[in-house]
Every structure is written in structure tokens, then in C-alpha cells.
Amino acid sequence: MVDTPLQLPTVGPFEGILFIGDPHVAASPPGYRLDDYSQSILAKLDFCLQTAREHQLLPIILGDLFHVPRNNPNYLLVALMDLFRPVIPWVLVGNHDKHEARLTPDVSLMVLHAARVIRLLAAAGPVATVVAGGRRVLVGASPDWTPIPRTVERGGHDYVIWVTHHDLTFPDYTAGRVHLRPIPGVDLVVNGHLHTPKPPVQRGETLWCNPGSISRVALSSQTPNKLPVAAIWRPGQTELETLPIPHRPFHEVFPAFVDRESPSPDDLDESRFIKGLENLMMRKTSEGLGLQTFLTANLQSGDPIDALIWELYEEVMREENQE
């Protein structure tokens, strides 16, 4: 059981809580993004924080504030400081925020923490009593690779909310490592880490929610239909309220996606294909998104031009392997 400390800090008053999923702030476009990604994600964060101010909501970022943990450029850190300083969002530690699975002093998240523009949620356990809508809400946290409690002592609070950054199992995602279960004493668990929104699942007295990432960082069959959203909780709500976030259409920020099961000759936009190649060559391949993956996802079998591109790729790879 997790006991509630007698001397928890109290913050507020607020009208509710705004949950912001996995921003993945980065200077270089992750995945196959073709736009000015850093400005795009900063604009999404700005929208969320403005909403929090206007509606008196406590903003909590559910992990993976950064896409890479270190060496983010100074202009990006300064931009985040300017965004965060008026509201001081709470930031849960995610796996992308850590270097070699550890929260070391040289990661970008610690720079923001040292600048006192965020409240860092780096340890598992109760965090604070949040006064929201006149109710006392115990907020606890389980950052990446920390335990989710089996039971929590409510300590006289009206609500208990726990934020997590874990690989949870949902009905449409059975590969997760952590199964959903009742947590006596906890009313609501809000999870980051999983980028695709999941339907809420009730387990005993505990409602498990996964609002998804506010950013689209990967190109897959699900990406065209994924809409960036945040989530709002207010006392008395039985489910989270979805907050749509302004964003550009899929075709403006990603190259054309070709479904390999049903390819169409019109699916491949040549100009975006070339731009995607240029974008790929400008980035390091540390994300595991290499040229072979890009070509496999976009070239069409039976197209003579695509066949030439693939032959050229194989020839280049043979030459590199011989060196």
C-alpha cells in the first residue's frame, strides 16, 4: 500500500487538470515529418498551456517531453522556458527523457527543472493535494520504469488520480507489459507512452485512460486518422473530456503513405517522396528509421522507376559493405 504523507503540499485552486500526452519536442523532424516540426510542436504546447490558463486547469505532461534526451539546441530550451514560465506545468519523466535509461544531470529535462519552469515528477508516489473545483484531489505519479501502486491510502481526499508512463495493455493493444487492474483507493489512472488514444477501461473502482500523444511522430497506417488531442478532467466527470488541438492535415506533414496490401498507382506523391528522401538524409538514423525502411514503405512493386530506385539502393549498399 502507498500511504499518503501527512505533509503533502497543496496547490490550487484550479477548476480541473489538463493532461498533455508525449509532446516529443525536437529540433529535427522525427520519423518522416516534412514540416518545421519544432515550430509545430511548440505551437501545440502553446495552445494547451493557453487553454490551461484560460480555464484554470493544472497542466500535466504525461512524459516524453523531449524526443531525444540530450543535446537539444539552446533556442529550443529557451522557447520552452518562455512557454512554461507563466504556468509551471508538471512534467512526468518518460523513457525518451532519459539517457541510457537514467535521468542524468545532463539531460534537457533537468535544464528546465534547474530553471524552475517545470515541476518535475521523477519519483513514484504521491505528489501533492490539488484543490480543483473545491474538491481535494490527491495526484500521484509513476514515471517510466517505476512501480504502479497496488493500493493507495486516500488520506481523506475526494479523488485520487495517478499519472503513469507505462506500456499498458488495452483491449486493442495486447502487447503491453502491464495489465490493467483495480487499484483500491485510485479513481483514475492517466497514462502517457502509448501514442494512439485508447478507449477508457474500468477495472473495479479504477478508470484507466490513455489520451495519446499530442504529436504525430511515426508514419503508419494509423497516422492519417490520428488527431492530436489533450484531455481534461474536472470533478464530477465520469470520463476525460477530449480537447482537440489545432494541427495541419496529414498530407501536409507526411509523405504519402502507401498501404502495402492495397497499393494504388496514384498513392505516391513524387514531390513528397523526394522531399522525404531529402529529409531522411539530413537526419541521423539513430531513431532506426533508415533508408531501407523508407523505400520499403513507399516504393511500389511493378513500377519501373521504383525498380530502378531499389536497384540503385542495393548497389550502393553492396559497395558500402565491401569497403
What does this structure look like?
- The protein has 323 residues and is an alpha/beta fold.
- The protein has two domains: 10-244, Metallo-dependent phosphatases (Purple Acid Phosphatase, chain A, domain 2); 255-322, no CATH class.
- It is built from seven helices and 13 strands.
- Strand 3, helix 2 and strand 4 form a beta-alpha-beta unit.
- This is Metallophosphoesterase.
- Residues 17-197 form the Calcineurin-like phosphoesterase domain.
- GO terms for molecular function: hydrolase activity.
Output the CATH class name of the largest domain. Answer: Alpha Beta
Tell me the span between the first and last alpha carbons: 59 Å
* Overall structural domain count: 2
Contiguous runs where pLDDT drops below 50 for at least 5 residues: 262-271, 281-289
CATH topology of the largest domain: Purple Acid Phosphatase, chain A, domain 2
Q: What is the count of DSSP helices, taking H or I runs of 4+ residues?
A: 7
Report the sheet-strand fraction.
Answer: 15-25%
Please estimate the helix content: 10-25%
Would you count the extended β strands for me?
Answer: 13
- Second rung of CATH, namely the architecture of the largest domain: 4-Layer Sandwich
CA-based shape? globular
Largest sheet: 7 strands, mixed
Mean pLDDT: 87
Q: Provide the succession of SSEs.
A: EEHEHEHEEEEEEEEEHHHH
Rounded radius of gyration (Å) = 21 Å
- Strand order, sheet with most strands: 1-6-7-8-9-11-10
Protein name: Metallophosphoesterase
Domain Calcineurin-like phosphoesterase: 17-197
GO molecular function: hydrolase activity
Organism: Desulfobacca acetoxidans (strain ATCC 700848 / DSM 11109 / ASRB2)
